[in-house]
Amino acid sequence: MSVGTLIKKMAVDAKAASRTLRQIGSPRKDHALALMAENLIKGQDEIIHENRKDLMKAEESGLSAAFIDRLTLSENVLQSMAQGLRDVIALPDPVGQVTGMWRRPNGLLVGRMRIPLGVIGFIYESRPNVTSDAAALCLKSGNAVILRGGSEAMHSNLILERLFREALAESGLPPETLQVVPTTDREAVYALLSLDDYVDLIIPRGGESLIRFVAENSKVPVLKHYKGVCHVYVDESADLHMASEICFNAKVQRPGVCNAMETLLVHEHVAGDFLPAILERLQEAGVEIRGCERTVAIAPEVTRAEASDWPEEFLDLILSVKIVSTMDEATDHIEKYGSNHTEAIVTNDYNRARLFLEQVDSSVVLVNASTRFNDGNQLGLGAEIGISTSKLHAFGPMGLEELTTTKFIVYGNGQIRT
Amino acid sequence: MSVGTLIKKMAVDAKAASRTLRQIGSPRKDHALALMAENLIKGQDEIIHENRKDLMKAEESGLSAAFIDRLTLSENVLQSMAQGLRDVIALPDPVGQVTGMWRRPNGLLVGRMRIPLGVIGFIYESRPNVTSDAAALCLKSGNAVILRGGSEAMHSNLILERLFREALAESGLPPETLQVVPTTDREAVYALLSLDDYVDLIIPRGGESLIRFVAENSKVPVLKHYKGVCHVYVDESADLHMASEICFNAKVQRPGVCNAMETLLVHEHVAGDFLPAILERLQEAGVEIRGCERTVAIAPEVTRAEASDWPEEFLDLILSVKIVSTMDEATDHIEKYGSNHTEAIVTNDYNRARLFLEQVDSSVVLVNASTRFNDGNQLGLGAEIGISTSKLHAFGPMGLEELTTTKFIVYGNGQIRT
Questions:
Q1: Cα-based distances in Å from B2 to B9, B188, B191
Q2: ipTM above 0.90, yes or no
C-alpha cells in the first residue's frame, strides 16, 4: 500500500470511528481512559523494551543528553503518564452541553449544543508522553485522533498505540479512535494535510519550522502555536518588590518554555530604583542581559541590545531590557515586536491596569502576575493540548472545550418561513 | 505599483486601522454606521450613476436578467441597504464582553474577554448590497475589512467605498477600516490569501468553485460555506399535515438558497398516506420529483432518481425522495450524502426527536420546523455574514459574535509559579 493510500485509509477509518464516538456518553469514555492508564502500568516492561530501541537509535545518532532524557520512558514517567490519563477522567465532559437557549417570537426554541470536532490530526515532535496526553484529551472530547509523532519515538508510540487500542476495544469503543502513523515518510504528513473531507483539524506542536510547514501546506484548518515573545512591563506605580518577584519568576523559573519572559520594559521613573537590583539578581541566576541605550547608562556592565534582539524568542537565560518614557511606548513596543502570546503589567494604578488589559492584543494579558501562568492547567481549563496564537476558534491555551464546536438545535411545533 | 505591493499595502493599512478600531466603543461605531446610512441616501444619484456603468457592461456581456436584477441599485434597494446599516446599530456590541470569570485557588481572577479578530478579507461575487452588509458587521465587531467583490460590480463597490469612508472619517475612525480591492486581477486574490501576518480571517461567499479555490490557496484561516444538501425526514409518528406544510415550505418558498430542502426521506409506514398528496402538491408548484424505487412504486409518474441525485444541491425546483425502513436508515443516508448544513425531522415521538437532534452532525438540526430557518436573523443572531459548514470557530450562521474571539484576562496581586 502506498503511503498516500495508507493515510487515506486511516482517515476514513477515523471518520467512521468519530461517528460512533460522538454518541458515546462520559462513563464509557472514562472507563476506556481508566483501562488505558492500567495498561500503561501492566505493560510497562514491554513499553520500556520498545522505548529502549528508540533510545539506542538516538544515542547512535548522537542526539543530545537533554533530548534523550525527554525521550526516556522510565517507570516513574509511565506512572505520571497514567496519572495524567486519570486526571482527564476527572474533567467535565464538554460534549452535549447546551451553552445557551432562547425563544424566538415565532415560538422556536433555539439552542447551541457542544459537539466533538470529529477527526483531529496531531503532528508533534519527540516526547512520547505527548502521545498519551493527546490521546486522552481527544477521547474525552469525543474526537478520533491520528497521531504523527517524531520519528525518534516511533517504537515507543507504536507500543503505546497497541496498549491503548486494547483498552478501547475492551471498553467497546472503536480502536480506530486512536491511530499512530506507522511511517516516518514525509509523504504521510502531506497526505494527512490534504484530507479535508475526513480530517477536521490539524494541531502541530513543535518548533517554528514544523508549524510553518504545516500551516503552509494544509488544506485542513490548522491551530497554530508560533513563538512566545512575552513581555513584562513594570509601570512607574509598581510595587517594586512584587515586580522583582514576578520578573525573576517569569524569566528564570523555566526559561525554555513559550510563556517565559523575553523582554522587560521599565518605566523611566522607576528604572533607576528598580533595574540595578533586579539585573543583579537575574545575572546571579545566570541570565545574560541585553539592554537598550538607557539601560546600559544605568548598568554599564550590560551588553547593548541589537535590533534583532527585540523580536527574538530566546528560550534561554537571556533577557532584553528597555526603558520606556510612557506606557504607550511600552504597548507600542509590544505591538511591534510581540507575538500575541502573553504580556503582563506590574502596576498599582487602576487605570493603567485597565488600559493595559484592554489594549494589549495577546492571548493572555495579566496584571500583577507572572507570564508563566499562560497554561491550561494554571488558568483552570484542566489540561491543555497546546496554546493557540492564531485568533480563530481558540486564542490561548486549548483545553477540552476547544476540541469541540457547537451546533444549533431547534425545537419547533410546525413553524415555517413566510 | 504591482498588484502584490498594492494588496500588501492595503493589508498593512488595515492592520494599523484594526489597532485603533479595537479600542473604540460602541457609540462611535454606531455614529459611523448612521452616517454611512445617511450617505447611501444623500449619495443615491452618484451611486445609481456608477451602478449604471456596471449594468451596461453586464448587458453587453450578455449576463442573465436575473443576474442584472441582483446587480441593480435602485432607490428602493438603497433604502433597504440603509435600513440594514441601521439594524446593525441596534445589535449589541460583542467587543469587551466578558464571557466568564473564575477564581483560581492561588487567588488569580481569570476571565475571557471578547475582542475583534483584527483584519477580515471578504471575497464574494456580484451583489453590491453584500458590500454594505459586510462593511457594517465588520465595523460593529471592531474589525477592519478588505472587500474583494465581483468584477461585475466594481464601479458600484468603489462608489460605496468612497461614501462609506467619508462617513468613517467624519466619525473620526480610520478610513482604512474599509477598503475595496480596486482591481479584478486574480493576482490580487492570491496576494490577499498569502498575507497571514496581516489578515486574520478570509470569508469567501459565492459558488462552490470560488470557495474551493480560496480554501485550497489560502495561508490565512478560511471560514468556508460549501453547499447545502438539506434533508427533511418525515417519521412514522409525524403529524402529516404539519409534515406537508414543512416540506412544501422547505422546498418551494425559495428553492435557490442553501437552506432549501433537496432530499425528502419518508418512513415506510407513512409513505403510502403521505407521499401521493405532498408529491402532487409539490408538482403543482412546479417541482420535479426524482424518487427511489419504492417511491416510484407508489407514484408511478415520478422519474427514477439516479445515484448522482442524492449528493446533489439542486438549488432549483427539483427534489429527490427516498422511502426508508427505519430512522437509522434516514440518518445513515444523511451521513453519507448530506453536507453538514441543515437537517429536520418531523415527528411526534419524543425519543426519535431527541435521538435525531443528537445524532445528526449538521450546523442546524431542527424538530418540527422548516430547514429555511438556518439563517442568522431567523435564529436570533441579528444579522449574518455567512453560514459556516466547517466546524472550526463557527458552525452554522455567523453573526457579530462569530467575528470576534476571546482573550484571557488575569487579575493578580503578585502571583508567581512555583
A1: 11, 10, 11
A2: yes
